[in-house]
Amino acid sequence: MAMWSFRGVGAKGFRTLEQLVPRAEWFDHSLRDLAGLLGLNEAHLEEMVRCESLERKADQLVEHLRKEGIRVCFRGEPRYPPLLGELEGSPPLLFYQGPGATAQARGVVAIVGTRKTSHEWLKVARTLAADCCAQGLVVASGAAEGIDTAAHSGALSKRGVTWAFVASGLDELDEAPRQIVDQILPGGGSVFTEYPPGTRAEKGLFVQRNRLISGSAGAMVMVRGAEDSGARHTAAAASKQGRRVLACPTMPLDRLGGLERVLLRAGARPCFDVGDVLASLGLVKMRVQRPLANRQPISDDARLVFDALPVGLFDMESAVAALPAQETGAIAAALMELELAGWVLQRTGRRYEKHADPT
Question: Domain 300-354: which CATH class?
Answer without folding.
Answer: mainly alpha
